[in-house]
Amino acid sequence: MTAIASLRRVGFPRLVVHLSVLLICILWLIPTLGILVTSFREPQQIASSGWWTAMTGSSQTAAVRLADGAAARQEGANYVVSGTVFEAGQAGKIQSFGTKVTAPSEFPVGQPADLGDGESLTVQPDGTYTYTKNAPFEAGRGKRVYLTVTTPPAFTTSNYQTVLASQGIGQAFVNSLTVAIPSTIIPVLIAAFAAYALSWMEFRGKALILAMVVGLMVVPLQMSLIPLLKMYNDVGALFGVPSRSYAGVWLAHAAFGMPLAIYLLRNYIAGLPKEIIESARVDGASDFEIFVKIVLPLSFPALASFAIFQFLWTWNDLLVAMVFLGTGREQLVLTGALNALLGSQGGKWEILTASAFITIIVPIAVFFALQRYLVRGLLSGSVKGG
Asked: Which of 105, 207, 280, 309 is the most exposed place for a label (fewest CB within 10 A)?
């Protein structure tokens, strides 16, 4: 009994942790799923119902006019107008109808509705109707009727076609990749060399350099952005480099990401088994050979974990890209293009959701491709040191 009670005490906290993590994942997943579903829906369905009804269809109120009284035919003592409430190419199922905008569900379908003054109207679920009157209809516009219509689920890829072709998102997507990939590779490579030197090489001032790296981690980007831009423009003017170029964005992202990269990688590399490094040196391997053939393969989890953070930061960045690259249509990154859409297409949710999902699909793919290394690299880098 004591052992069972002990197991229960150990198992219950673990169950709570698992359920908490599951709840957090669901809370994060629901908005992403909503964006994905909405991006494939038609504008009319987005305006009439929530994304969670996408698989069951949507219900909306529509106003239509029946055929003109001039098209009426006489059947005995009555005059009849018939037709369909749907236009060519439309479809749906009528749930109810009414003659007042405040009561669109006043009458059920399939049964004659007494409208007064000798008039009756029957609307079938498929949209066909029969409008009867005991006197001739007046010529002119037909009677207005309000319908409650259920439309079947409908999905389209035209939202993505519109975004990629006519809204400039396609070019912005390429710009973001051009910014993010080098801005991730450059600091990872440089930081890996620096981390190895700070871990396994002896030279004067190593402790001071490490202290400076830790201190630079707390420098806000906004505070150093203007001095960095001025320095870049001065150096660029000296060597004839344009003030607005991808090189400036790459260098800025590399500079801002380098302190964290060196700190994480140094802690990880310093925790590698000392015997491996010493054995390689005894065999005559140089520091470069040790770094390339031993340290880099063993440090892949730490490299991947930082690469995830750096890529997500550079992909979602707007400030650095606007400052160093510009705000022209050909220079905008995805975040800038999406921000422009918020002003010009604020009411078109199908365009905004398609743009948003194009923006997040690459970070999601990168995260799931490297997520198995994320926790391993961060935990090892946080507890190991030398």
From this structure: 207
- Reported residue count of the chain is 386
Contacts of 114 (CB under 8 A, 6+ apart): 120
pLDDT in tens, 281-296: 888 888 888 888 888 8
Q: Which CATH class is domain 160-383?
A: mainly alpha
Q: Give every strand in the sheet of 107-108, ordered side by side.
A: 58-65, 144-151, 93-98, 107-108
Q: Across residues 12-35, what is the average pLDDT?
A: 84
Domain ranges of the chain: 2-53, 58-151, 160-383
Q: What is the pTM of this model?
A: 0.68
Q: What digits encode the pLDDT tens for the residues 80-113? A: 888 888 876 677 788 888 888 888 888 888 888 8
Torsion sign across C-alpha atoms 40, 42, 47, 53: negative
Q: Which long-range contacts (CB under 8 A, 24 or more apart) does 77-82 make?
A: 77/134, 78/132, 78/133, 78/134, 79/132, 79/133, 79/134, 79/135, 79/136, 79/137, 80/130, 80/131, 80/132, 81/130, 81/131, 81/137, 81/142, 82/128, 82/129, 82/130, 82/131
CA dihedral 175, 178, 184, 190 (to 10 degrees): -140
CB neighbourhood size of 379 (10 A):
13
Pairing of strands 58-65, 93-98: unpaired
Structure-model confidence comparison of residues 320 and 237, the more confident one: 320
Whole-number Å distance between alpha carbons of 192 and 269: 9
Tokens 């229960």 label which residue?
8
**Strands, E assignment, 85-134:** 93-98, 107-108, 113-116, 119-123, 128-133
